[in-house]
Amino acid sequence: MATALAAVPGGRDLWRVAIIATGAAAILAPVALVVYQSFLSAPFFSARARFSLDGYAFVLADEDFWVAGLNSVILAASMVAIAVPVGAALAYLVVRTDLPARRALETLVLVPLFVSPMVLAFGYVVSLGPVGFLTTAYESVLGAAPWNIYSMLATALIVALTHVPHVYLYVAAALRLVPSDSEEAARVAGAGPGRTALTVTLPMVLPSIGVGAVLVFFLGFELFGLPYVLGDPEGRLVLSTYLYKLTTRLGTPSYQLMAVVVVAIMVVTLPLVTLQRLVTAQARRYATVRGKAVRARLVPLGRWRWLAFAAIMLWLVAVVIVPLAGITLRSVVSSWGLGVNLADVLTLRNYAAIDSMRGVGRSIVNTALIATFGAALSVAAYAAFTLATHRWPGWFSRVFDYLVLLPRAMPGIVAGLAIFWLFLFVAPLKPLLNTLASIWLAYTLVWMPFGLRLVSNAVGQIGEELEDAARVAGAGPGRVARDVVLPLARHGLLASWLLTFLLFAREYSTGIYLIGPGSEVMGAMLVSLWSAGNIDVVSALSVINTVMIALGIAIALRLGIALDE
Amino acid sequence: MLKKNTEETMIKSLAAGLVLALMALPAHAVGVPENYPPSYKAMLAAAEKEGKVVIYSNTEQFAVNPVLDAFQAAFPNIKLDYVEIKSSELYNRFVSEASAGALQGDVIWSSSMDLQFKLLDEGFAQAYASPEKAALPAWAVYKDLGYGTTFEPAAFIYNKRVLQEAAVPKSHAALAKYLSDNAASLQGKVGTYDPQKSGLGYFLYSQDLRNGTVLWDIAKGLGQTKARQYSATGNMLEKVASGEHLLAYNVVGSYALLKAKSDPSMGVVIPNDYAVVMTRIAFVPKDAKRPNAAKVFLDFVLSKAGQEVIANKASLFSIRQDVEGEATAAKLTRELGSAIKPVAINAELLDLLEPTKRLPFFKKWQGLIEGK
Fold first, then answer.
1. Which terminus of chain B, N or C, has fewer Cβ atoms within 10 Å?
2. Is residue B272 domain-shared with residue B285, that is, in the same domain?
3. Cα–Cα–Cα angle for B195, B201, B207, nearest 5°?
4. DSSP B285
5. Best of A248, A420, A538 to disrupt the B interface by mutation (most B CBs within 10 Å)?
6. Is residue B21 part of a domain?
7. Quick one: closest CA in A to B119, which residue?
8. Closest CA in chain B for residue A250
């Protein structure tokens, strides 16, 4: 009924068209530029650029491309295979069961999201690398360590375990909205907790799990920091490090080749969106915030209670404590490793050195700005897009659903490069190039699929009848959005803002081509300093980055914004 | 009341004018050497009017900061903005900005000699005869367009806590033999530049090949030790300092020496059979927004005062023979004589950017490194 009403074309849908058109333009411009570049023989701005398929011929004939592609598929698949079930189980445990300290865990399980992949990777080298402090400690007692941090297995495990929170977020949000009456019915009928979870709860949150799986798979193709630090010296390429290699391999940066690789990533990943659409098409059946919501009752875990708790703690130690301990240790010593007595090399010089680094101070301020105000602005944009497509089954909004995933099919570094060119070659944008505006646009675009999903989780599951009620009372769609949907989604929106804050504060690859005098951000600065090899400052700055994010969270929690609503 | 205010304003502006004049005076006196032409004053005045200079460079800040600080002290009226970017990104940024007519950088300064030369060759630089030109070796100046500013040898590095200095090879041939002889104990413990991911890496290997074929023996040895390949000197410094690697081949010697100053575990060998020396090329772009300030900066870097900082604080090695100190061309030449092989700024550099030459090299290199 509501659907039929909204589908009637008319002037009052104009605002939706306007918002969607703006968003589509912002998304399509960089994507179109990259696709266009892929068919040229030289950089698009060069006078020598001609239409050419040579880029495709070169890349498709390059053995490295296929090897890198295969590695990317393996990493992405292992992320799905591990992060999805673990993340879903974690969500079930935290939301639905009587797990010890579950309120505290609700925040703690998201901590891996705070840590920048560059920080993680380097932290692991210092703690678990061949001469890492944990490795040497282990070897002094038990003999040769059985792990190799640079192996493909280790990389796959690390990327999978660090992406558990991404899945957790989706599934937990869905679980909170599923009423527990059907579960109780199952239990009354004699099903145990395990069977109830698998046969009753699981089907209800399957769409959210599907979304999480697709997103994690996308992120798997985009991975840069971890494979760059852990796999690169071994010569193990993934698509994004292969891209990076193309900047130097042929002497001068080969943008047409980089563009071809991005097109290839899109060709592989976009069909997944169709798959996801098929899965989520059924989501409507499970819209769950109804006019009458019943508080969920917790499932007793019995003797599994503490075991589950211990498993979660172990996971947190592995993906947070171990790498952070490594990087923190590195930040307070001048040297480390084989034969170094740490007490002799303790120093605060690395932190003092930050002060003398040009641009680094500015990058700290800029990062704080972009992560707070920038993220708020982005959430506002995401909310506008969500409301514009919300319960609007026109083909326009279906297309938009595909569009928003496009920027994520570009690794951040390429998205940043495309945005850099747009700001350089589109006259009205030119004055904004070396400002945070360019960084903001790039961040907003690459995190759009994730951010939109956060926002639509908050908005999408509000029962249609609440909106229908307003409509029956005579409210137009704008009024419904303003007076019904937004207030009901307020907590969700605040949580989205906080998560976007996290993502922006630790984002690193997108800014690589965008940072200039005045627009430095910490993440890209870290990559630049890492490539230059100034590890002293890298480690100190990493710790500051992590502390900044932790502070942001602490303040938000203080203000009563829940991270996970 | 009104009168008093006007008086106050007048006195204030007089005082301000006086302060400005005083500030400007010592700047001229400190910054400009006496032997510069009289017309230089006008250029300096124009530079101070521009008020700012933006440097695009890939030189690490911990090395270059003393040079920048010295410039700032000598020319306090020219604000300095230093943007550190990896060489291939620097090239991209410059070419894109220049093509869009929105160039920000006033001085382009990079160790990537081949990419820099390509820019000079394609007409992106403006001709400027620096008054310091006569003090530079002829091979380091290209048609008044680009200037070599440093004299940095490629080096081997090793971990002093693990390897004794006497055991460490001092020449390329000795290195090749050392790697083969000790392959078993060096498994995974040697680092080297990845020529495919680092333009500098390919550059250094190409220079090796101009000095014989010993590189292929080294590559074979690297393959036998299952050496790891890196895209930056800094990463190799870190791995060798921690002892994860014992030895690394072909690193930028200047950075290694600077690291050795603060880290006693870092050992540096400048090979004595031949030592490839590169120089960071600086130029002023044709469309520079602040050309006068850019030229003043370039002259300062080339000047005796600037090069003394480069020699003694930045460890980037002074290129001038008349500068003495711990890191200078003069000292290196005394120690190694004709083994020093500086890479000249000329059209041969363009060869290095030829994909048709690079790809066969990579193929052979990769085959040896993988022990095939």
1. N
2. no
3. 110
4. B
5. A248
6. no
7. A252
8. B355
On whether both B204 and B294 belong to a single domain, the answer is no
Nearest residue to B116 via CA among B83, B142, B154, B77: B142
Query: Same domain for A379 and A319?
Result: no
Contacts of B162 in chain A (CB under 8 A): 338-339
Give DSSP secondary structure letters for A136-194. HHHHHHHSS-S--TTSHHHHHHHHHHHTHHHHHHHHHHHHHHS-THHHHHHHHTT--HH
Instruction: Please name the member of A417, A425, A532 whose beta carbon is closest to the beta carbon of B234.
Output: A532
Torsion angle of C-alpha atoms A309, A311, A316, A317, degrees rounded to 10? 110
Do A322 and A388 have their domain in common? no
Torsion angle of the four alpha carbons A66, A67, A68, A74, in this order, in degrees rounded to the nearest 10: 110
**Chain position carrying tokens 């032409």:** B37
Phi and psi at residue A517, to the nearest 5°: -60, 115
Q: How many folded domains does chain A comprise?
A: 2
Let me know whether B230 and B100 are in one domain. no
Chain centre distance of CA A398: 23
Alpha carbons B168 and B178: distance in angstroms, whole number = 8
With beta carbons under 8 A apart, name residues in chain A contacting B235: 233, 530, 533, 535
A494 found inside a domain:
yes
A contact test, residue of B92, B95, B289 with most A CBs within 10 A: B92
Nearest CA in chain B to A135: B244
Cβ–Cβ under 8 Å, residues A158 and A326:
no
Q: Which of A347, A368, A392 corresponds to the end of one domain?
A: A347
Question: Do residue B352 and residue A251 have CB atoms under 8 angstroms apart?
Answer: yes
In a domain, B33, yes or no: no
Q: Which amino acid is at B42?
A: A
At B245, which CATH number? 3.40.190.10
Contacts of A122 by beta carbon, 8 Å cutoff, 6+ apart = A229, A323, A326, A327, A330, A530, A535, A538, A539, A542
Distance, CA of B81 to CA of B54 (rounded, Å): 5
On whether residue A66 sits in a domain, the answer given is no
Strand pairing category for B152-159 and B275-278: antiparallel
B positions 256-285 inside 8 Å of A (CB): 262-265
Domain co-membership, B246 together with B365: yes
**Domain range for A79:** 72-292+310-347
For residues B300 and B31, the answer to whether their CB atoms sit within 8 Å is yes
User: What is the number of domains present in chain B?
Assistant: 2
pLDDT for position B283: 98
Q: Which residues of B touch A336 (CB under 8 A)?
A: 241-242
Question: Which of B64, B71, B83 is the best residue to mutate to test the A interface, defined by the most A CB atoms within 10 Å of its own CB?
Answer: B83
Confidence of residue B65 (pLDDT cuts 50, 70, 90): very high
Same domain, B131 and B48: yes
Give the closest of B88, B229, B242 to A233, CB-based: B229
Write out residues 38-57 of B within 8 Å (CB-CB) of A. 54
Tens digits of residue pLDDT in A150-201: 999 999 999 999 999 989 988 888 888 777 777 778 878 887 777 888 888 8
User: What pLDDT score does A296 carry?
Assistant: 62
Residues of B within 8 A of A249 (CB-CB) are 196-197, 358, 362
**Low-confidence residues of chain A, pLDDT below 50?**
1-9, 284, 287-293, 565
pTM above 0.90, yes or no: no
Tokens of A380: 């506002």
Q: State which H helix or E strand residue B110 sits in.
A: strand B107-110
Interface of B with A in 183-242 (CB under 8 A): 188, 191, 194, 196-199, 202, 228-238, 241-242
DSSP β-bridge partners for residue B109: B57, B282
Distance from the Cα of B26 to chain A's closest Cα (Å) equals 25
Helices assigned H by DSSP within A390-447: 395-403, 406-409, 412-425, 436-446
